[in-house]
Amino acid sequence: MATKQIQLTGAGGQGLVLAGIILAEAAMRDGKNVAVAQSYGPEARLGASKSDVIISTEKIAYPQVIKPDILLCLSQDAFDKYSPAVDSQALIVVDSTHVNVQGRNTVVQLPLSRAAVEQVGNKLVTNMVALGALNALAHLVSWENLQKAVALRTPPKYRDQNLYALEVGQRLAQENQTKEV
Amino acid sequence: MRAQELVQGNEACARGALYAGCRFFAGYPITPSSEIMEYLAREMPKVGGICLQMEDEIASISAVIGASWGGAKAMTATSGPGFSLMQESIGYAAITETPCVIVDAQRWSPSTGQPTKAAQGDVMQARWGTHGDHPVIVLTASWVREVFEMTVHAFNLSEQYRVPVILLLDEVLAHLRENVILPEPGELEVVERRRPERLEDFKPFSNEMIVNFGEGARLMVTGMAHDEWGFPAQGQKAAEQLQRIVSKIESRADQLALYRAHFVDDADIIIISYGITSRAVEAAGHQLRAQGLAVGWLDLKTLWPFSDKLIRSCTERAQYVLVPELNLGQLVREVERAVRGRVAVEHLGRVDGYLITPQEICQRVQALLRAGVSHGL
Prior knowledge:
CATH architecture of the largest domain in chain B: 3-Layer(aba) Sandwich
Number of helices of chain A: 6
Helix content of chain A: 40-55%
Distance between the termini of chain B: 51 Å
Number of strands of chain B: 15
CATH class of the largest domain in chain B: Alpha Beta
Strand content of chain B: 15-25%
CATH superfamily of chain A: Pyruvate-ferredoxin oxidoreductase, PFOR, domain III
CATH topology of chain A: Pyruvate-ferredoxin Oxidoreductase, domain 3
Largest interface: A-B, 21 and 22 residues
Number of domains of chain B: 2
Order of helices and strands of chain B: EHEHEHEHEEHEHEHEHHEEHEEHEHEH
Shape of chain B: globular
Strand content of chain A: 15-25%
CATH architecture of chain A: 3-Layer(aba) Sandwich
Number of domains of chain A: 1
Shape of chain A: globular
Radius of gyration of chain A: 15 Å
CATH topology of the largest domain in chain B: Rossmann fold
Oligomer: heterodimer
């Protein structure tokens, strides 16, 4: 991997900025250069929210994603807005609980927020379920450093829940891959 | 070797301030600068400093000026709307020769504008926002580590020259997180204000030495035109004092100019940029060189005072100068003035709240070179 451009998209309050920070923290611990740029509207929550993560073995000059290799969409609005511009080689992962991919069959559809509610018991950890799934599919960072980054960047009270959410996401992706085979 | 850290631009600014010895911060929260204050509210008390949330930005800059005369290195941070409110007191800091640092994380403007979108629209306001001729130094940065370094530098210059120093950031850099190794204590120079040896005959407004309140010198600090002692002055005396405070900065324009120049000795087109836009220029510049195009780029860190000499020497052999910036044309005017019509100066502006991309710069440069060829350049 020379450079990976990752876009985490959805609505304000879904924890996409935090997910971007955790992914970058893990990549940095893997010895990579990282840049995380956040983009959101003026609303406190539920406006469009996006986290651009660049992971590279090179120096990162331009700090925003130009052409995503990986796109995560946690809301329908985000999918409608960002997926058309993404080329066919890119990996697109959506939360099938909320997103209708309208026949775009190359998209990986995982029930991320349903798994957060049903398996972890907290909808707020959907971002961590998504990170676990994304990393299982794209092998962006080492599992060990991803766990470390989650532990470092989440409140102690919810640490175990967030770490468990990562595992739930990882399992969700693995089951999905097995199904495809 | 020390470990890398993932640090946000605003956090780097706050940590740079502490490193430089800042022990007083007063501000009013505003996107996209709020994390500077959030960090200092938490960390400032640990080093014995004071962090105050004021009722507005006018009170914030006023508290900073007072704290500076009380002996503290002092800073405030804001964005466009707050920066506008601070303008009158920035003039007060300039005429009273008060060391202080003002951070403006620029957002889409004017007025409330778009709080979460980036811009570089405050370049002229930073220089001329307060009324009248006055001295000011304006710095900028493009990388998270550079935000730290330029914050330290801003304090150093303000203490050395008794002048308000403005650091212009933007929404993207303020919120950007990068892996960095920040300087250790002792790695960067930290400048302290200079005190006169004798207090009895010290004239507080005659040079760049300063005595804080309560240290035994007679002080009268006023925004009225004043003589060396601080008493009201008119006519020739007022003119002399104004010329002194302006020229202490303007006469050093070349010496104060910090920049990075790439391939400027060997280029038909020079791209002159600053702040976050320099990141797109660097990416585009390397792509264009790889295509064999004679492109050079100059990344300015000091915006004011503006060094005409630097611009002239870097564009001497060029046919074109391209100035990309996130506004409708601000620094480009200074570049045009400096090159005196000898080189064609083109502007690439963007005001939709998004950054200029490397692709936009490449396309513009390629178009300029094609046009140049067809004109026989």
